[in-house]
Amino acid sequence: MNPKPGEVWLADLGLAAKTRPVVVVSRYDPNPPRALIIYVPLTSQNRKSRYEVELPKLKFLNRDSFANVQGLGSIPRARLERKLGDLPSEVMHQIRQAILFALSLDTDV
Q1: Is residue 109 part of a domain?
Q2: How many structural domains is the chain composed of?
Q3: Do the domain assignments include residue 19?
Q4: Residue 65: which CATH number?
Q5: How many CA atoms are closer than 13 Å to the CA of 15, on its beta-carbon side?
Q6: Which residues span the domain enclosing 62?
Q7: Which run of H or E residues covers position 80?
Q8: Residues 92, 74, 36: CA angle, nearest 5 degrees
Q9: Cβ atoms of 24 and 39 closer than 8 Å
Q10: Band of residue 17 on the pLDDT scale cut at 50, 70, 90
């Protein structure tokens, strides 16, 4: 299993024994030095901030969802349970822009 950016997976994040959907945002690397992926969790709560990206209606998600870039994290690949689907490229672009904003990488320093 080698997840790719833009894929949505069900992942065990270890939060009260719950699994939740996440978007893989780490670059594709067929031979990474560590078996970790970087992800953004999905949530159904919209706080209408620049840290969130609204997702379109997707057949593999049963509710309105938002990518919460403030929850950016990494987990071992083994904690990914199953692939749910892929995000459209324009949505991934919005998520990348939100990550740049969240990390203050969107401006010249």
Answers
A1: no
A2: 1
A3: yes
A4: 2.30.30.110
A5: 8
A6: 7-102
A7: strand 80-86
A8: 100
A9: yes
A10: low
Specify if 2 maps to a domain: no
Q: What one-letter code names the amino acid at 11? A: A
Question: What b-and-e string marks burial along 2-22, b requiring 16 or more CB atoms within 10 Å of the CB?
Answer: ebebbbbbebebeeeeebbbb
Give tens-digit pLDDT for 47-106. 999 999 999 999 999 999 999 999 999 999 999 999 999 999 999 999 999 999 999 997
Instruction: Quickly count: other Cβ atoms within 10 Å of residue 108's Cβ.
Output: 3
User: Taking the CB of residue 83, how many other CB atoms lie within 10 A of it?
Assistant: 15
The number of angstroms, rounded, from the C-alpha of 24 to the middle of its chain's C-alpha atoms is: 5
| Residues 54, 71: Cα–Cα separation, whole Å | 15
Q: Which residue has the higher pLDDT, 15 or 74?
A: 74
Asked if the structure places residue 107 within a domain, the reply is: no
pLDDT the model gives residue 1: 73
User: pTM here?
Assistant: 0.91
Under a CB-based contact definition with an 8 Å cutoff, are residues 109 and 35 in contact?
A: no
pLDDT beyond 80 at 22: yes
